[in-house]
Every structure is written in C-alpha cells, then in structure tokens.
Design goal:
Mean pLDDT: 88
Oligomer: single chain
Low-confidence stretches: 9-13, 16-30
Shape: globular
Radius of gyration: 19 Å
Order of helices and strands: HHEEEEHEHHHHEHHHHHEHE
Structural class: alpha/beta
Strand content: 5-15%
Length: 299
C-alpha cells in the first residue's frame, strides 16, 4: 500500500485536523457529485452487519448518503466505527505522549545532510518553517505533511464520512461502538522503529507532488463503488511490509473476528471503517470468507 493510501485509509484526519487550513469557497448546488460507494453485508438468521468503507477526508459536494446506504444506516440498531464517540478530543494529548521525541532530541538532527535538505525543501513547499516538526517523531511529521495540503485543497474531516454518520447517529440517539481506541491507533505508528518511521516520512515526501491527483483517483473510485479499482490504487507502490501488516492486515483480522462474534447476538449493525480495509487481498471480507462466511455486495 502506498504512503498516500495509508494516509487516506487510516487516521490522518483526527491528528492533522489540528492544523487549520485556509477556508474554501462554497460549491454551487449544481457542482454536487452524486456518489454510490460500495456496501456489503454479512448476515445470519437474526443478525445483519453492513460493511461500509469510508473516506476520512472529503471535498465539499459529494452526495453519498442516499439509496441503499441510507436505508441500511436508518434500519441499523447501532453504529460501529474505528474509534468511539468523542475520541477525537483525545488527539492533542495523545500526540504529546506518543508523537513527540524525548526531551533534547530533534527530528532534523537524526537525518543526514541529504535527508535534511530534502526534508526542509518539502516543508518549505508547504509554507512551513524548517523547525515545524523538530520535536516530533517521523510518523507524526509524515501524517501531517500528507494531510495539510489536502485540507488546503478542500478535503475536510468535518465533511468526511465518519463525521456525517456520527452526527446522524447522534440525532437518532443510537449507540456508537468503537473497534479500537485512538490511543491504540496512534500507538501503532509510535511503535514502529525510527528506521521504519523515517522510511514512511520520505515516502510521503516523494509522493507530495502527485498527492492531490492520486487522492482524487481514490475518491472517484470510492464514489463510483469500484472496489477493485480502489484496492488497486491503494496497493500501488507497496510500502514497508511491516507497516502494512500492522496497520492493515492485523487489524482486518481482529475486526473480522469481532464481526464473527457479533453475529452471535441479534440485531442490525452498520459498520463503517476506512475504505482501505474493505478491498483487495487480506481485506475484512477476505478474512470473513476464509472463516466460512458469505459476504454479499449490496451496492
């Protein structure tokens, strides 16, 4: 999975949303794009679990909440997302604890001369001072560097799929369950070795010139419900196998086990996780089918 896909499929929004992008002009109603993203379900005699892939940051004007997605969500008894209600508020404190280097250390002093030149040029290209992330671990610099330019282009976590689902769920006064905690998610990044984190940072830097175009392609594939194309885009330019195993595959296995256990209780569940987890080899659907469950495409 490419560095860009990791940002779009994982947790760029709650971390980098602390950076405030320039305000974007409102789109005219005629500029709205109707989207029909993919939806699956797993069910037994008394339980239905819908699987919906999300995009954490979306530009304004994508109308995806209608049709079978709306129907599935409205009939559900509970919403299940990667992190529970209100977890985003924990991000600042967690970044201090998990994203900062020990006192006296600096990110740039851990780079050789060529790396430092390339890194500082990337920051300058985003209008950031060279010392912007000196106190932070490479993973935080990478996620933020990849997300800030998208937010400046109008991609906004407040318009992301999770944000809209969460708001609708609150209005319906239904429970929302988190598969993980934000502490756990950020801890995955912080747990990687400095070498792996730095590799990821420079993959992001190399990807910056193509970032907007590549994310646009991913959003278009998601909006059209083309799960195969989305999986291919997200798995282009494979990143570190260690990153993929920890951030994607292992979590997919854990989530599929949760789904199997949830089938033991009656009810209807709408499960919404990053779209990168619901496509290609090792996806949640793959794990469920390997366990003998039938996954049905609904939309």
């Amino acid at each position: 999975m490419s560095a860009l896909a990791l940002v779009s499929a994982l947790l760029g929004a709650p971390v980098a949303a602390q950076q405030q992008p320039a305000s974007q002009p409102e789109l005219a109603e005629s500029a709205r794009q109707e989207a029909n993203p993919a939806l699956w379900k797993v069910s037994d005699a008394d339980t239905t679990i819908y699987l919906f892939g999300t995009i954490h940051l979306l530009p304004k004007g994508i109308d995806w909440y209608h049709g079978k997605v709306e129907s599935a969500f409205e009939q559900a008894d509970e919403l299940v997302t990667e992190i529970p209600e209100g977890a985003e508020a924990e991000a600042p404190a967690l970044v201090v604890r998990l994203g900062m280097l020990p006192s006296g250390e600096s990110l740039r002093t851990q780079m050789d001369a060529d790396e430092r030149t390339k890194y500082e040029a990337a920051l300058a290209g985003q209008g950031l001072p060279a010392e912007a992330f000196d106190r932070y671990q490479p993973w935080f610099a990478a996620v933020t560097l990849a997300t800030i330019p998208l937010m400046r282009e109008g991609f906004d976590p407040s318009r992301g799929v999770e944000a809209e689902l969460a708001e609708r769920n609150r209005k319906l006064a239904r429970p929302r369950v988190g598969l993980e905690t934000l502490d756990f998610q950020l801890g995955l990044f912080a747990g990687f070795s400095h070498t792996v984190q730095k590799q990821y940072l420079f993959e992001v830097i190399d990807s910056l010139p193509q970032l907007k175009g590549e994310i646009d392609k991913m959003v278009d594939a998601w909006a059209s419900g083309n799960a195969i194309a989305l999986a291919e885009l997200m798995n282009a330019d494979e990143s570190s196998p260690e990153l993929i195993e920890a951030l994607i595959v292992n979590r997919n296995k854990t989530w599929s086990a949760w789904i199997r256990q949830r089938l033991d209780r009656p009810g209807t569940v709408f499960l919404a996780v990053g779209a990168g987890h619901l496509g290609g080899a090792g996806s949640v659907q793959d794990q469920l089918e390997k366990a003998g469950l039938k996954v049905e495409r609904v939309q």
